[in-house]
C-alpha cells in the first residue's frame, strides 16, 4: 500500500495516533471527541498549567463534559504535553491555535507559524496535518505546506495537508463539536479524502468536501462576516425600535413568520451591554 492507503487504513481501524495542537475552547473539545471515537490522542499546548489540568482529568472548558475528559484520561486515550518531540508518534495533527488581530487589524498568524514549524521538525511520511484556526484564504498553502515540504515531503503523496475551519459556538446547547457539520478542503484530492475520513470517524455531523483549502478558509470568513453583520443589524434595529416606542421582539416574531429569507434574532446580556446574536429560525 502507498502512504495514502496506509493512512486511511490506520484511520479506519482507529490505529492512528492523533495530535491536537492548542487545548483551548476549540482544541480540547476536539481532542476529547477524537479520544471518545477510539483514537489515542496527544494534546499539545505551550501552557504547562493546561497540560497539567488535562493530565489530571480536570476540565476548564465549558463545552466539554467533565466526566468525558476524566474518563478519556483515565483510560489512557488522552494525554497532554508541552514536548513537541512526541509529534514523532503522531499520524494526524490538527492545529487549533489562536489567530488574533494585531494592532493594525491584520491577522496574526504567529501561533500558526510556530505550530507548523514544530510539527515539521518531527513530520514523517504518511502524516496528515489539518489547520482549523480561523484565518485568511491562502494560509494553509502559504504557511503550513512550505514548512512540511522543506523536510522533503511531497504534499498529496507523502504528507497530506488540509484546512477544516473550527465552528465552535461556546455555550450553544444544541450544536457542539460532535454534531456540527464540518467543511474540509485539502491541497490535493487525496488530502481531502484523508482528512474527511478522520472527521467522519469522529463526528456525527456531515462532512462537506470542497475543492481547496482556500475555499474552506473563505467559507469560514463568510460565516463570521454574516454573523457579525446580523449582530450589527439586530443592535441597530433594537436601538431604532426603542427610540420609536416599538416592541422589537414583536417585530422579530412577526418577521420570522416569513418562510424564506428571514432570520430570528435573540439577545444576551454582557456587562450591561445588549449584544444580539443571530440564529437560524428553525
From TrEMBL:
InterPro entries: 6-PGluconate_DH-like_C_sf, NAD(P)-bd_dom_sf, UDP-Glc/GDP-Man, UDP-Glc/GDP-Man_DH_dimer, UDP-Glc/GDP-Man_DH_N, UDP_ManNAc/GlcNAc_DH. Residues 18-195 form the UDP-glucose/GDP-mannose dehydrogenase N-terminal domain. One of its GO terms (biological process) is polysaccharide biosynthetic process. Pfam families: UDPG_MGDP_dh, UDPG_MGDP_dh_N. Residues 216-266 form the UDP-glucose/GDP-mannose dehydrogenase dimerisation domain. Gene3D superfamilies: NAD(P)-binding Rossmann-like Domain. It comes from the Bacteria. GO terms for molecular function: NAD binding; oxidoreductase activity, acting on the CH-CH group of donors, NAD or NADP as acceptor; oxidoreductase activity, acting on the CH-OH group of donors, NAD or NADP as acceptor. PANTHER family: UDP-N-ACETYL-D-MANNOSAMINE DEHYDROGENASE (PTHR43491). Belongs to the UDP-glucose/GDP-mannose dehydrogenase family. This is UDP-glucose dehydrogenase. It comes from Mesobacillus boroniphilus JCM 21738.
